[in-house]
Specification:
The chain has 126 residues and is mainly α. It has one domain. It is built from 4 helices and no strands. The chain has helices at 2-25, 32-57, 63-89, 100-125. It is elongated and about 55 Å long.
Length: 126
């Protein structure tokens, strides 16, 4: 659990640093469309940091469930937000890694589905 919270804390810190970097340093470099894309990556990363904090401190989940959900969301952040950062901050072409961002989005969807299924099972037990 603490490993997941450590990774989550790092991802939260990174989202704040990248958000500030985008706001203060990239306005002169990126187009408005590119900056909006970068901000989307930061926003989705931070949304999922909040979810990860909840998952890992909620006592209603088993350690196995916490780990499974955390790894799925970690992959979503890495692939979704990470690919957008890579595209906007380097010379990597979106055409060359077009499949990575949607794959990250799919991991976000899977993570939310896992959460929903756990809550449905808990609801049916009561």
């Amino acid at each position: 659990m603490f490993k997941n919270l450590l990774i989550t804390s790092f991802l939260g810190l990174l989202a704040i640093v990248l958000g500030a970097f985008g706001t203060h340093s990239l306005k002169e470099i990126l187009t408005t469309e590119q900056l909006m894309s970068f901000e989307t990556a930061v926003r989705y990363q931070m949304y999922h940091v909040f979810v990860l904090l909840f998952v890992n401190i909620y006592e209603g989940f088993s350690e196995k469930q916490k780990n499974r959900i955390s790894y799925v969301f970690f992959l979503g952040i890495l692939l979704f937000s990470g690919s957008i950062y890579l595209i906007q901050l380097t010379s990597v072409s979106a055409k060359s890694i077009w499949f990575v961002t949607p794959l990250g989005g799919l991991f976000f969807i899977i993570g939310w589905f896992l959460l929903m299924m756990i809550f449905v099972k808990k609801m049916n037990k009561n």
